[in-house]
Amino acid sequence: MHLARAAYGRPSTPARSYRQIEYDLFARVTKELGQSERNRKRDFPGFVKALNENLVMWRTLAIDVADKENGLPQQLRAQLFYLYEFTSEHTRKVLKDDASAEVLIDINTAVMRGLRGEGDTP
């Protein structure tokens, strides 16, 4: 019984909401992308890795919002899917050195503001 209380009694950290988890993911990926953008000349493989992590995050989000069982409003789902498409295309331009990753960072930051309830989501 003592083990059960220790395991299930009082959680040491409160449960986090999906929004908090999503925010934390966006924050981590965006921070890595920003740092790697500044070091892209010295550490191009690290920059590519950060771009890929950002794209994987967006691809996963796109798959989620494309699911008809997703509970978000249809218009928001469509906007998020469009942002995935833009992010994917812009990432290709960044890799060809035809664009900056700053736009990707700005998009992620806007989504983070939305997840925090600090304004309109994309």
Protein model, in words:
The chain is mainly α and 122 residues long. The protein is 71% helix and 0% strand. The protein has one domain (18-115). It has 5 helices and no strands. Helix 2 runs antiparallel to helix 3 (44-66) and helix 2 (18-38) packs antiparallel against helix 5. The termini are far apart. Pfam families: FlaF (PF07309). It comes from Gemmobacter denitrificans. Keywords: Cell projection, Cilium, Flagellum.
How many domains? 1
Q: Biggest β-sheet: count, sense, barrel?
A: none
Choose one word for the global shape. globular
The amount of helix comes to: over 70%
Strand content: under 5%
Number of helices: 5
Q: What gap, in angstroms, lies between the N and C termini?
A: 49 Å
Catalogue the unreliable spans. 1-7
Strand count: 0
The radius of gyration is: 18 Å
Pfam families: FlaF
Protein name: Flagellar biosynthesis regulator FlaF
Keywords: Cell projection, Cilium, Flagellum
